[in-house]
Sequence to fold (333 residues):
Amino acid sequence: MTVAVSFDRAEEKTLLGGLFDTVQFDEESAGVPVLQPEDDDEDGVGSPEGASDFHLPDRHPQERHGNRYTTGPDGLRVLKPKPPKPAKAGGKTAKKKVKKEWLERRPGSSDSHNDPELREVLEGMFEYRDAKTGMEMRLATGSASGGQIHVDLNMFDRDGKGIGTAERVIEATADGRRKARHEFFQIYFDDPPIQGGGFATRWLKNLEAEYRENDIEEIELHADIDVGGYAWAKMGFDFRDDRTASRLGLRLEALVDAQLAGNEQQRRAVFGELAFTDDALITARELAHMAQVGGERRPTPMEFAMLGWEPGREMWPGKRFMLGSDWQGVKQL
Fold:
């Protein structure tokens, strides 16, 4: 059974601008959360092509969802041939890819600040127009220097007003693997029209596809800035290393001990009126211990975020703990 939980609550729209959509929790997989963007319609339950797989024909007319099956020449039920997909509203398809020489550290090599080919590739990777909100991400500058590609981006609303900025770096590791670093991402939250819609979720999804096309194997970032520690956990990022997880585990352990000892001042400083139930306390202590041990048993940021979650709750201890947390994250592509 899958329970979908919406995170577009009023409180988070104020803090996060409603940029992130939905996470699903698969109860058959020991509560492991699975990111599910709100409008992912590619052959999923939300699309006419996929709806009939989840339809009970006795409940209401099939036409309400559409039908992906038809009757073949021999009278058997067969899949309809899929029509060609229309061009996506967001993200241009990169005709050219990141060149190896742009990521090489060569003595005497010149910087590529105004290379038209480099700009064409970066526009194809990073520029994005969101059909749902009308928001756009556009390339400001891009340059290749010292074995790295530096990318500066500007975000605009549907009226062309600047509402945010982002910085990205692409580089090669010592063993030749390519990675992207998400250096900075800022939204100007004081503009009500930009709230809601899940723009960041869809842009990241589009960007990850472009990264894969360009042989980029991982993303690194620093999860902080107000709600960043929670938001990036929800987006599927893991701790970069055991040390990062251990630091968060120590902090959680101190809060568990504070509640057990009746230290209300220390507990309220993080959780406010929230408190762990007895069962959640046991889970939190185990999680804190595993984070400090590290290795294969190391928990994920999302496991921290889901501590004390119950259906229908807008806020719970794990979410409060991760809001404003500070950790180094990585996501393998």
Notes: The chain is about 30% helix and 25% strand.
